[in-house]
Amino acid sequence: GQEILTRDKVALRLNLSATWCYADVLHAFGQLQKPVEHLYRELQFALRSAVGTRSLDELLEDKQSIDDVVIAQVRARLGHSGVDVRSVGVKDIVLPGDMKTILAQVVEAEKSAQANVIRRREETAATRSLLNTAKVMEENPTALRLKELETLERVAERIDRISVFGGLDQVLNGLVSIKGA
After folding, report:
1. Separation CA 76–CA 30 (nearest Å)
2. Closest CA to 66 of 42, 50, 87, 48
3. I need a labelling partner for 41 at 20 to 30 A (CA). Which of 7, 84, 132, 163 fits?
4. In this structure, are residues 83 and 24 in contact, taking their beta carbons and an 8 Å threshold?
């Protein structure tokens, strides 16, 4: 593992894993004084090169590209040295504590913005539906009356008890006295 700066100047700690073997032990020690140390150094240089040319967002979105660049560079540099690099992989990308907090806030803000967009779409759809209903009722008095009855039914479902004072007789007497006056 080593600490490396990204293109946008964020310090990261990366852990890299590599699988390798000697393709030709005698040739490897003939070409390189310390093949394992040389391999380690080449892996470090390739990792620095791959990370230093990318932004933090690019690295977090596509770790596989780091692996591809590192293995290509190491294989090219070691070429016919007798060392065969089979695979390379970034195991961990460790962010500094403050960067973790900032990234968490960014993700939270993005999710909040997405939720607001969805909420606004739903509100717009509901408003359109109300507008369409209003147009239908304006053009059709029967539909308006049905809507009134539907609303009255919903209100009546919530009422526990209805108390009528005076009753029907009082209403009829009121009508008769109005006509007589």
Report:
1. 18
2. 50
3. 7
4. no
Exposed (0-12), middle (13-18) or buried (19+): which is 113, by Cβ within 10 Å?
A: exposed
Cα–Cα distance list, 62 to 2, 92, 138, 174 (Å) = 19, 13, 57, 83
Q: How far apart are CA 28 and CA 38, in angstroms?
A: 10
- pTM, entire model: 0.56
Percentage of the chain modeled with pLDDT above 90: 29
- The three-point CA angle 153-157-161 to 5° equals 115
Interatomic CA distance for residues 36 and 50, integer angstroms: 21
Q: Would you say the C-alpha torsion 159, 163, 168, 171 has a positive or negative sign?
A: negative
The enclosing H or E element of 96 equals: none
Q: What is the pLDDT of residues 3-27, one digit of tens each?
A: 888 888 888 888 889 999 998 999 8
For residue range 15-70, what is the model confidence (pLDDT) as tens digits?
889 999 998 999 889 888 899 999 999 999 999 999 888 888 888 888 888 999 99
Phi, psi of 89 (to 5 degrees): -155, 140
Q: How far is CA 147 from CA 134, 138, 163, in A?
A: 10, 12, 25
